[in-house]
Structure to design on (660 residues):
């Protein structure tokens, strides 16, 4: 601060010597215009100590979006091609082509085709959907509770979903629904958790950021306790392992049947968020500012809560609680394109989709034929990134 | 355009924070709202920029009832600088100013050249054109306040509402902020802590105490030693500014009162 004062003093001296410029504004009779003009006549005024000048962080958006779309296509093909079964790329591409165009394949190729099209590609597509959903909701939740450390799970929805999922995995609840039992139970308990969190966090003044975070966090611990109790109460060791797998997130249960519902929820959520991007900018500045800009913060926060809860519920129902994507991707993307939600909501879902496809590929091949929970790998990648991010924040926002 | 606050009352949780307040500002006037901490200044202003719904009474802009308009429509007529101090997301200065266009834009409409020109003009107008690409969080307090004024100007309002715009600023920046809003030519309603700033810059001051207006008028007629003793609990001495002759005030605590 001392340095800033010194700079300002120097600027004032320079301003006095260039008082002729003041007349250009037609306010030379106003003594205060001096202070205005002296600053505007300092185009390269040095930044505060430790902050540096504006970071050259803007990657041109069209270029970024094109590369990300390209990367997404390539990643999907890799997701279908990479694995333990030793298929050649020519075969993989032929099966993908056959799957896309409805072309014919020989009877002896059916097992290989099934691996590529039914197992791997559906899984890669679902990974993309989940990654896109978690990243976009991460952005929305951070703006909604105005906290850069929030993620889709801070609302307690995912741990609510875990209760339902584990009831199915461990106690065989909803057995009549067959393969749908797990995702149905997860989604229903996510909705229940949403209603609970909403009812507790709501006040006469609507949903306030701090109450939402505190309620969500408290509920998170509550639901986690129930889940942990169920795991310990389980008689079968394998069931406890499945439960653990689900808690850390896994796409091993992926199939084409799971794609439409999850993709529908994520696309609807993305549409709403894209529609609200400008309002999200205003909300991120504070409730009062949002109101002054013509945005009703209470109403917007309610909409965001519903969208976040529904998308999180749908995504968690098919993939378990995959951590760090919803926290890390929004921040990484902010470094690339800045904080404007219009750019953020275009880039973050694509980035999340690509990232999760690759994390899922790694989870299949690292310990093949065994599978790692996706959450382990996102954390392995996420924690170092997060620490870097924190250090970077401390650096760029130093002194505040 | 004139703004009239008519018999405005705010009750929150059984407490009456603002009681039948009637104040107005004529076209182009700079009107100050002064009063001790907790007297209801901010609550009143929050009703004006629609962060709060009054329990009774009305706010009219050019005769039109503000609360009968949609929030977007009223934000096109009235811009505000609330006291939010958000330091969570690193928007650039240009992005912050662009938010001022929000009430004029559709949700998915592209930013037009007109929007861009208005934002650039607003930023130049407050002498902060060179800051456009800087991160808002890296700015000093004075620079931030100028950028927020640019955002309000980009909103193309008829009336500007400011809640303690000079808080935490050094004296040069305090004077600069008030000169800026004065030079905008808009009707301005501002809450001010500093009575000397109010005396120097305001055409009209309203004194608010415990939610009620206790005096209104030109600064030199309103800011009397009796009123300052009553409302603020201080002993004031009125002196003339040696240069301009304008009213200025010197303060100490009254000797009869314990200082605790």
């Amino acid at each position: 601060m001392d340095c800033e004062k010194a700079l300002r003093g120097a600027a004032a001296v320079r301003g006095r010597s260039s008082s002729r410029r003041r007349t250009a504004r037609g306010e030379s009779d106003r003594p205060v215009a001096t202070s205005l003009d002296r600053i505007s006549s300092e185009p390269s005024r040095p930044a505060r100590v430790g902050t540096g000048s504006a970071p050259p962080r803007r990657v041109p958006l069209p270029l970024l979006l094109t590369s990300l779309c390209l990367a997404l296509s390539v990643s999907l093909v890799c997701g279908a091609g990479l694995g333990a079964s030793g298929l050649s790329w020519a075969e993989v591409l032929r099966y993908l082509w056959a799957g896309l165009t409805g072309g014919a394949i020989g009877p002896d190729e059916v097992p290989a085709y099934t691996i590529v099209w039914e197992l791997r590609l559906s899984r890669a597509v679902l990974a993309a959907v989940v990654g896109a959903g978690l990243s976009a909701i991460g952005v929305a939740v951070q703006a909604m509770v105005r906290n850069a450390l929030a993620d889709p799970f801070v609302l307690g929805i995912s741990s609510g979903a875990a209760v339902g999922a584990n009831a199915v995995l461990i106690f065989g609840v909803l057995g009549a629904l067959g393969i749908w039992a797990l995702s149905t139970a997860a989604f229903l308990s996510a909705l229940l958790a949403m209603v609970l969190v909403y009812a507790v966090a709501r006040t006469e003044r609507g949903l306030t950021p701090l109450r939402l975070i505190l309620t969500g966090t408290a509920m998170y611990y509550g639901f986690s306790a129930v889940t942990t109790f169920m795991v310990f109460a389980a008689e079968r060791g394998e069931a406890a392992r499945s439960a653990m797998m689900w808690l850390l997130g896994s796409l091993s249960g992926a199939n084409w049947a799971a794609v439409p519902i999850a993709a529908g929820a994520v696309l609807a959520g993305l549409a709403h968020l894209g529609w609200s991007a400008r309002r999200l900018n205003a909300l991120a500045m504070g409730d009062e500012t949002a109101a002054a800009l013509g945005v009703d913060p209470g109403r917007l926060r309610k909409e965001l809560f519903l969208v976040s809860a529904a998308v999180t519920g749908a995504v968690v129902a098919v993939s378990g609680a995959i951590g760090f994507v919803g926290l890390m991707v929004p921040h990484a993307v902010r470094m690339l394109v800045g904080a404007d939600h219009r750019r953020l909501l275009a880039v973050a879902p694509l980035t999340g989709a690509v990232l999760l496809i690759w994390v899922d590929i790694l989870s299949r091949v690292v310990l093949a034929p065994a599978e790692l929970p996706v959450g382990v790998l996102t954390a392995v990648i996420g924690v170092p990134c997060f620490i870097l991010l924190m250090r970077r924040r401390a650096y760029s926002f130093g002194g505040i | 355009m004139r703004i009239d606050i008519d018999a405005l009352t705010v009750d929150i949780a059984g407490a009456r924070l603002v009681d039948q307040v009637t104040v107005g500002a004529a076209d182009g006037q700079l009107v100050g709202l002064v009063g001790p901490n907790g007297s209801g200044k901010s609550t009143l202003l929050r009703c004006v920029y629609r962060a709060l719904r009054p329990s009774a009474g009305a706010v009219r802009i050019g005769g039109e009832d503000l609360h009968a308009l949609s929030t977007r429509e009223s934000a096109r007529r009235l811009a505000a600088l609330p006291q939010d101090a958000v330091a969570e997301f690193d928007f650039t200065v240009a992005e912050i100013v662009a938010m001022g266009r929000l009430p004029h834009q559709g949700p998915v409409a592209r930013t037009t050249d007109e929007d861009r020109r208005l934002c650039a003009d607003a930023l130049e107008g407050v002498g902060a054109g060179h800051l456009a690409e800087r991160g808002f969080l890296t700015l000093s307090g004075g620079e931030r306040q100028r950028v927020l004024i640019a955002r309000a100007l980009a909103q193309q309002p008829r009336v500007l509402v400011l809640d303690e715009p000079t808080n935490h600023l050094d004296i040069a920046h305090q004077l600069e902020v008030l000169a800026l809003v004065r030079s905008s030519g808009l009707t301005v309603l501002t809450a001010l802590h500093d009575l000397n700033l109010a005396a120097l810059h305001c055409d009209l001051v309203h004194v608010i105490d415990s939610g009620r207006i206790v005096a209104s008028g030109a600064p030199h007629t309103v800011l009397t030693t009796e009123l300052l003793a009553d409302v603020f609990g201080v002993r004031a001495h009125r002196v003339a500014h040696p240069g301009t002759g304008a009213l200025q005030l010197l303060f100490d605590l009254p000797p009869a009162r314990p200082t605790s």
Q: What stands out?
A: The longest helix of chain A spans residues 110-144.
